[in-house]
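::Amino acid chain::
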Amino acid sequence: MRKRMFIISVLFVFTLLSAGSALAQSYYFELPQEIVHVFWNEDGTQSIHYTFFFKNSPSGHAIEYVDVGLPNSNFEVNSISADVDGIAVTDISRSGFEEEGVGVAVGLGGNSIKPGQSGQVSVFIGTVRDVIYPDSEDDNYASAVFSPNYFGPSYVYGKTDLTVIFHLPPGVQPDEPKWHASPSGWESEPRTYIDDQGLVTYEWRNTSANGYTQYLFGASFPKKYVPESAITRPSLLKNLGLSSEDLIPFAFCGGFGLFILLVIVASVRGSQKRKLRYLPPKIAIEGHGVKRGLTAIEAAILLEQPMDKIMTMILFAVIKKKSASVISRDPLKLKIGDPLPDNLHPYERKFLEAFRRRKTSTRRTSLQKMMIDLVKSVTKKMKGFSRRETVSYYRNIMKRAWAQVEAANTPEVKSQKYDEVMEWTMLDRDYEDRTREVFRTGPVFVPMWWGRYDPAYGRSTTARPISTPSGTGRTTTLPHLPGSDFAASMVNGVQDFSSSVVGNLTDFTSKITNKTNPVPVSTSSGRSYGGSGCACACACAGCACACAGGGR
């Protein structure tokens, strides 16, 4: 009898252990690829089309349900459809959603993805409301921000080739919308094009993303393309991502008023920050091929180099063409040639005309007008060409220019090469540090035009002639500077121009941006709340986040 009871007990314990092992087995999968199409409809609603490519782990549980987080609770369940490898599934419910926030559970039924197998799950959500918000930096614009569905880190592993595609409302013109700042680790700009429905489209892609991180993407467009009633205007608390319950600790601590004050101050400061992006968005609409033949200064516009650097490049250009000489560095004063040579570009002529103005404010206004015309000229030249390819082309020219200078074996050759390619090296974002490093040691043989750039040249004790052998057996005397002095003079040229001519760079550039790219990038410092219980802490106006889902 005791032996029989012992056997029964052992079997019972074994059964419990087996059941525990089965229960312990949980979802564990890879997400090699995810593609999300987000349609911002003309009625102000949102439609989302997900395509998930799952690769289930051999040790994981069969993927029987996929939780898809949604921006808020204002969606229509009957607008949602799904399929697995092209086979429709109908088990779609709010109540089955097991993650924080709001969303739906998609039951795969007999099409579940077994351990070690792969499958494609597509989910289409036809209608989500209350997803468009006021743009925090332009009253005439609306802001739309979206975060694609992501899964708990305990369920998903490996890299994900993630593509997020925004289809903007019908009627929006290519030069009207603006994308928001990209997530960290992504390309700074999306690919832009017109889709097969004629809609302006932004496409972000990162082949090294993952399925467990929340990524935020956004765009702003004129609010006239959606009904005014469709634009959600959140309360102060929701703007801060708070509920009334969140305020209780602050009330008890007596710090609520201070907290609100700090938030308001931070919000005001954030909204006052102006972007220095002066290129109009239409220049990024995808064309074909490289636009060759741009000058280094026009290429600098395409690369959105700082305005003070670009005008310093123009200064060097007119000096090298013997059209001007610097007679004073601080404040910067030029002696303009008369007559001017015929080989000047229009922007060089306008630059010189601006320096004929004696009054600082008038000169500054003329320079801003010159830069506005230059930006518009480059925009026109880029029509039909690929900005992405063209930017890459001119960056390669810059890299080759530096390579030629650095490969020079003698100071004479290095100086000569630098004189030939100087304007292209200035396209480098790290131009100042690179110049200091390249000319850190050894002498630099100053170019023939140096005296027109440096009014102190000739009086300086650091400029000394050096005798070098020529091909005829004679010696040629070439003036030179210590490399560090030469580098400092080049670098300080940009800084001097900025301080004495441009003044406050942000203020100077903003007046240009207002004409060439009047709609600022909306990266609101306040947080807009995307719906009841949404667990994705949106950081931008127009939060429309798809919260974490998929774990089960």
The chain is about 35% helix and 25% strand. Confidence is low (pLDDT under 50) at residues 1-24, 268-274, 460-477, 520-551. Residues 326 and 334 are 5 Å apart (CA to CA).
